């Protein structure tokens, strides 16, 4: 058994990880993959030569570099069932807050909450794609990725359209109390998710990627809270529209990355 280590500088979220997995899955010599997302590193445990693997990864244009290849034993004792259980919890938390934030966002007229809810949905799609497609055929994975990506892109475009409509119309100032309270609850939910992921102490693929996504969500939650405070201070809708537009841009970026899987 050989272990080849790749440095992949453009691998920074679950989208790139899924792209690599789908690309390498048809190669029978690949036996196991270990991702270190923060370090932008991938370890491939494989048989035979590394050249087909290097060619497959290179086709993704993620700025990869083969660092070394050496003999190694296949890792054992990976508790995949425990990791899946944690990911199901994280998915559930994200989807629940998508529903809560979307509902309260429209009630309170806050585009920041609506945008944050779609960001939660985007994460749920990524986690769900990972779990739903385990063991499935490549064609099925690509179909799920395409549907998810177009759905997320459509939501982002609708969000941008609504931001522009409110920008050019005499729309009411959002209810800052709802913005702050719901965002604080979402922040707590994301902190719990991050605690669950870190508790696993796993270097496995989806776990580290999920930790990065959840950390980004915490930053977004803080942005919506800040926008709510500025809406109160300035008695203006502009901070809410600004944070909404920024978060919708992140959602669109995520949709484009998911579509690359297809």
Verbal overview:
This protein has 262 residues and is α+β, with helices and mostly antiparallel strands. It folds into two domains: 2-71, Alpha-Beta Plaits; 80-261, no CATH class. Helices cover 68% and strands 11% of the residues. The chain is built from eight helices and four strands. The protein has helices spanning 14-24, 51-58, 80-108, 111-132, 138-167, 176-199, 205-234, 238-261, and strands at residues 2-8, 30-36, 41-46, 64-71. It has a four-stranded antiparallel beta sheet with strand order 2-3-1-4. β2 and β3 (41-46) form a beta hairpin.
Order of strands in the sheet with the most strands?
A: 2-3-1-4
Shape: elongated
Strand percentage lies at 5-15%
The count of β-strands is 4
Radius of gyration from CA coordinates: 20 Å
Helix content: 55-70%
pLDDT < 50 runs, ≥5 residues: none
How does the helix and strand content classify structurally?
Answer: alpha+beta
| Separation, N- and C-terminal Cα atoms | 31 Å
| Helical run tally | 8
Mean pLDDT metric: 81
Query: Can you summarize the main beta sheet?
Result: 4 strands, antiparallel
The structural domain count equals: 2
Oligomer: single chain
Query: How are helices and strands ordered from N to C?
Result: EHEEHEHHHHHH
């Amino acid at each position: 058994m050989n272990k080849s280590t790749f440095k992949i500088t453009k691998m920074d979220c679950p989208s790139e990880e899924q792209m690599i997995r789908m690309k390498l899955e048809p190669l029978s010599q690949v036996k196991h993959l270990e991702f270190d997302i923060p370090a932008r590193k991938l370890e491939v445990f494989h048989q035979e030569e590394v050249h087909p693997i290097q060619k497959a990864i290179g086709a993704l244009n993620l700025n990869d570099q083969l660092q070394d290849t050496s003999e190694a034993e296949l890792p054992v004792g990976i508790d995949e069932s425990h990791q899946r259980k944690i990911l199901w919890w994280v998915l559930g938390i994200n989807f629940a807050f998508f529903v809560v934030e979307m509902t309260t966002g429209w009630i309170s007229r806050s585009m920041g909450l609506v945008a944050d809810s779609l960001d939660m949905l985007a994460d749920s799609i990524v986690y769900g794609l990972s779990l739903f497609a385990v063991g499935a055929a490549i064609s099925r994975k690509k179909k799920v990725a395409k549907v998810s990506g177009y759905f997320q892109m459509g939501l982002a475009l609708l969000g941008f359209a609504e931001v522009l409509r409110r920008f050019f119309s005499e729309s009411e100032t959002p209810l800052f109390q709802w913005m702050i309270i719901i965002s604080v609850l979402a922040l707590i939910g994301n902190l719990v998710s991050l605690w669950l992921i870190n508790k696993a102490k796993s270097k496995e693929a989806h776990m580290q990627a999920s930790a990065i996504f959840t950390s980004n969500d915490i930053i977004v939650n803080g942005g919506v809270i800040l926008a709510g405070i500025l809406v109160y201070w300035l008695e203006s809708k502009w901070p809410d529209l600004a944070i909404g537009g920024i978060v919708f841009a992140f959602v669109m970026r995520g949709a484009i990355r998911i579509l690359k899987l297809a």
